[in-house]
C-alpha cells in the first residue's frame, strides 16, 4: 500500500497488487469520506496538480488521471518496446519518473512527453523516489538499488546489506533515507546511499528498530530471577503443636534448631570446626560410634547443619535404605554426583565451574587451544561486520530455514555459504566442548550394573571396566575445584545392613577416599560392623594366628581380631557418641515442646508462594518454550509464504501486461 500526501486534508491510496482498481479518493471532512472508483487496474499514481496526475499499471504506457475520478489520454513512451511500468513518482518541479520490469526507467512531463532512460540494470524495479529534481533512487528485486545525480540521465548501482526484494523507499533529505522490503527488511542510509546499514536495535545514527534477539539485559534478568527462585526452600518446616503426642520424645534424629537435651551440640561444633580447619588435610575417614539408639544420626545431623551454614554441600547417604540396590557403589556415587555440586545459578556454582573449566583446560591443553581458535574464528567473522551481532547472517539464515534453496545457491554464492557453514561448525564444536567441560561428572554410575545383567553386551562391560578410572579423574577434578570447601560425605546406618552389604559399603568408601580430597563420616556400632566383616572374611580369618598371649583363639575371636585390623586400616578417627546422664535422659523424655511464635500475614503469604513456586517455574518455562516455538514457526512459515506470494504476483502482473 502506498500513501501519497500533498495536503493535510487529502490522501490518495493506491493498492500495489494486481486487480486493484484506481485509487480511492478520501477527502477528510465532518461529513465523512467520498469514494471514487476508476475502470483500470493500476499499481501507482503520481499527482502533480490537485487530483490531476498520471498513473501506471496493467496497461501499456502511462494514463492521465483527471480530478481523481476518471482516466484521460494514454501516453506512449518514446523508444520503449513493450514498457512495463510499475511505479511512478513526481519531483518538486513537476517532472515525473516511472520504473518497472526489466530495468525500465522513464522520465515524463505533465503534458505527457515521456522518454526512455538507461538504468544500467535488468532487474525489476518496484519503487522510485526523488529527494530533489536531480537526485533520486529506484529499488527492486534481490536488494537492487540504483541512483541518479543528474535528473535521470545516468544511473549507478549501490551496494546494500540485503538481497531481499525491496518495495518501498522514502528520503527526508538528499542524505537521509530508508528502504523497506520482504521479510521485515529495513535498511537506511545517512550519506545519500553511499553506505547502507540494516535498521536493527541501533544503526549509526538511526533511532532504532527491530532486532532478531532480545536485549542482553533480558537474559541477565532471567538468569537472576531463576537463581532467586532456586534459593527458595522446597519445603516449609511443619509447625509442631503441643499435644498429648508431644509429651514424650520420638526416636527421630534431631537436627539444627531442635532442642539439644543430650548435649550433642558441643561435640558437633567441635567436629565441624575440625573439618573446616585449613590444617586438616583430606582424605580422612571418621567413625561416629555408638550402639543403636545412642544418637549417632542426631550427632551427624548437627555436624551436617553446621557445615551447611558455612556454605559446604555435604552428601548424605543412608546405607540401610539402599542395601537392596544392585550396586551400593553405584548408588553412593550417584548421590555424590547429585548432592555435592553447587547449583549453576549461585555464586558458589559459578566459581566452582570456572575453576573446573580452567583445571580441565590445563589438563587437556590441545583441546583447549582448539576451542580458543574456534571462538576466535567466530569472533573475527562478526568483527568484520558488527551488524551480524544484531541481525542473523543471510547465508546462515538460509542454511537453517531453507537448506534446499541454500544448496541451489552454492554455485553463485559458494563463498558466503561456505563461510557461514564454517562459522556454524566452529560455534557448535566450541559449544559442545564447553558444555562437556562445564559438566562436573561425565560418567554414569549405572554402567557399574552391566555385569549384574544377564543381557550385558561387550560394550557395556568395557564401559564398566573404564568407569572407575574415568570417575577417579573426574572426582579428583571436582574435589580440587570445590576447594577451600572440602567435600564431606555422611554414611548413616551402616551397622544395620547385611554382612555382605557392610563389606561392599566399606569397599566403596575406601574407593571414594582414594579418588580425591574428601572427608567421609560414618555412623556405626563398631561391634556389629566387626561381626559383619568377620563373617565375610571367615575363611581368611581362620588362616590367621590361632593363639594370642598363650591362649588359643576361638573361631569368633579370630574373625573379630581380623575385623579390628581391617577397620583400623580404613578408619582414621573414631568419635564415640557422648552418653547422657540420668538428668539429661529425664529431660529428653518429659520435656515440653516450645510453642512457636505467631506468624505474620507476610510470612503466611510467603509460605503459600513458596508452595506454589515449584509448580510455577515449570509452568512458566513451558509457556516460554511454547511462545518461542510459535514465534519460530510463524517466522519460518511467513518467510515461505512471502516468497511464494512475491513470485505469484510477478507472474500474474506479467500475464496481464
| Overall body shape | elongated
The count of helical stretches stands at: 16
| Helix content range | 40-55%
Compute the number of strand runs.
27
At the first level of CATH, the class of the domain at 240-341 and 441-595 is Alpha Beta
CATH-scheme architecture of the domain at 240-341 and 441-595:
3-Layer(aba) Sandwich
**What low-confidence regions span 5 or more consecutive residues with pLDDT below 50?**
1-39, 201-209, 239-248, 639-657
Portion of residues in beta strands equals: 15-25%
Measured between the Cα atoms of the first and last residue, the distance is 21 Å
CATH superfamily grouping of the domain at 240-341 and 441-595: P-loop containing nucleotide triphosphate hydrolases
CATH topology title of the domain at 240-341 and 441-595: Rossmann fold
Strand order of the largest sheet: 8-12-11-10-9
- Counting copies of identical and different chains, the oligomeric state is single chain
The radius of gyration computed from the alpha-carbon positions, rounded to a whole number of angstroms, is: 41 Å
Q: Tell me about the biggest sheet?
A: 5 strands, mixed
Q: Which structural class best describes the helix and strand composition?
A: alpha+beta
| Overall pLDDT | 75
Amino acid at each position: 500500500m502506498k500513501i501519497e500526501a500533498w495536503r493535510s486534508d487529502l490522501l490518495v491510496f493506491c493498492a500495489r497488487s494486481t486487480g486493484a482498481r484506481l485509487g480511492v479518493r478520501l477527502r477528510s471532512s465532518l461529513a465523512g469520506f467520498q469514494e471514487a472508483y476508476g475502470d483500470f487496474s493500476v499499481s501507482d499514481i503520481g499527482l502533480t496538480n490537485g487530483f490531476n496526475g498520471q498513473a501506471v499499471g496493467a496497461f501499456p504506457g502511462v494514463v492521465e488521471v483527471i480530478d481523481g475520478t476518471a482516466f484521460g489520454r494514454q501516453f506512449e513512451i518514446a523508444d520503449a518496446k513493450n514498457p512495463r511500468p510499475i511505479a511512478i513518482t513526481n519531483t518538486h518541479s513537476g517532472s515525473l519518473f516511472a520504473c518497472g520490469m526489466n530495468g525500465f526507467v522513464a522520465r515524463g512531463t505533465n503534458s505527457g512527453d515521456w522518454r526512455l532512460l538507461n538504468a544500467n540494470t535488468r532487474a525489476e524495479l518496484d519503487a522510485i523516489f526523488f529527494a530533489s529534481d536531480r537526485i533520486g533512487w529506484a529499488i527492486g528485486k534481490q536488494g537492487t538499488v540504483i541512483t541518479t545525480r543528474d535528473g535521470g540521465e545516468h544511473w549507478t548501482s549501490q551496494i546494500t546489506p540485503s538481497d531481499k526484494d525491496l518495495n518501498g523507499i522514502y528520503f527526508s533529505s538528499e542524505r537521509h533515507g530508508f528502504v523497506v522490503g520482504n521479510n521485515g527488511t529495513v535498511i537506511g542510509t545517512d550519506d545519500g546511499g553511499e553506505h547502507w546499514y540494516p535498521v536493527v536495535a541501533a544503526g549509526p545514527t538511526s533511532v532504532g528498530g527491530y532486532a532478531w534477539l532480545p536485549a542482553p539485559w533480558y537474559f541477565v534478568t532471567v538468569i537472576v530471577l531463576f537463581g532467586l527462585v532456586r534459593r527458595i526452600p522446597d519445603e516449609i518446616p511443619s509447625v509442631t503443636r503441643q499435644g498429648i503426642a508431644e509429651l514424650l520424645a520420638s526416636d527421630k534424629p534431631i537436627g539444627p534448631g531442635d532442642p539439644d537435651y543430650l548435649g550433642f551440640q558441643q561435640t558437633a561444633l567441635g567436629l565441624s570446626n575440625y573439618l573446616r580447619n585449613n590444617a586438616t588435610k583430606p582424605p580422612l575417614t571418621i567413625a561416629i560410634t555408638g550402639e543403636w539408639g545412642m544418637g549417632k544420626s542426631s550427632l551427624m545431623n548437627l555436624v551436617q547443619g553446621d557445615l551447611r551454614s558455612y556454605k559446604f554441600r555435604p552428601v548424605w547417604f543412608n546405607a540401610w535404605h539402599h542395601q537392596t540396590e544392585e550396586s551400593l557403589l553405584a548408588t553412593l556415587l550417584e548421590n555424590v554426583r547429585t548432592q555435592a555440586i553447587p547449583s549453576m545459578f549461585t555464586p558458589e556454582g559459578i566459581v566452582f565451574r570456572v575453576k573446573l573449566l580452567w583445571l580441565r583446560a590445563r589438563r587437556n591443553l590441545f583441546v583447549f587451544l582448539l576451542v580458543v581458535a574456534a571462538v576466535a574464528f567466530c569472533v573475527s567473522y562478526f568483527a568484520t561486520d558488527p551488524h551480524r551481532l544484531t541481525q542473523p547472517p543471510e547465508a546462515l539464515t538460509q542454511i537453517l530455514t531453507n537448506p534446499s534453496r541454500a544448496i541451489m545457491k552454492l554455485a553463485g554464492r559458494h563463498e558466503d555459504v561456505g563461510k557461514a557453514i564454517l562459522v556454524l561448525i566452529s560455534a557448535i564444536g566450541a559449544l559442545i566442548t564447553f558444555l562437556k567441560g562445564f559438566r562436573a561428572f561425565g560418567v554414569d554410575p549405572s554402567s557399574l550394573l552391566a555385569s549384574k545383567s544377564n543381557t550385558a553386551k561387550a560394550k557395556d562391560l568395557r564401559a564398566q571396566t573404564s568407569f572407575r578410572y574415568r570417575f577417579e579423574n573426574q572426582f579428583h577434578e571436582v574435589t580440587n575445584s570445590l576447594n577451600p570447601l572440602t567435600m564431606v560425605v555422611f554414611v548413616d546406618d551402616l551397622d544395620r545392613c547385611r554382612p555382605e552389604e557392610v563389606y561392599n559399603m566399606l569397599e566403596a568408601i575406601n574407593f571414594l577416599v582414594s579418588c580425591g580430597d574428601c572427608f567421609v563420616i560414618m555412623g556405626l556400632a563398631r561391634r556389629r560392623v566387626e561381626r559383619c566383616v568377620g563373617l565375610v572374611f571367615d575363611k581368611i580369618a581362620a588362616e590367621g594366628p590361632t593363639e594370642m598371649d598363650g591362649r588359643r583363639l576361638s573361631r569368633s575371636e579370630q574373625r573379630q581380631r581380623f575385623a579390628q585390623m581391617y577397620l583400623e586400616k580404613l578408619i582414621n578417627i573414631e568419635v564415640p557418641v557422648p552418653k547422657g546422664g540420668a538428668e539429661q535422659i529425664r529431660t529428653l523424655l518429659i520435656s515440653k515442646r516450645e510453642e512457636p511464635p505467631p506468624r505474620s500475614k507476610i510470612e503466611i503469604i510467603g509460605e503459600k508462594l513458596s508452595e506454589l513456586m515449584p509448580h510455577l517455574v515449570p509452568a512458566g518455562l513451558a509457556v516460554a518454550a511454547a511462545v518461542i516455538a510459535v514465534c519460530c514457526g510463524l517466522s519460518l512459515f511467513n518467510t515461505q509464504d512471502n516468497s511464494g506470494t512475491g513470485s505469484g504476483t510477478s507472474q500474474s502482473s506479467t500475464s496481464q501486461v
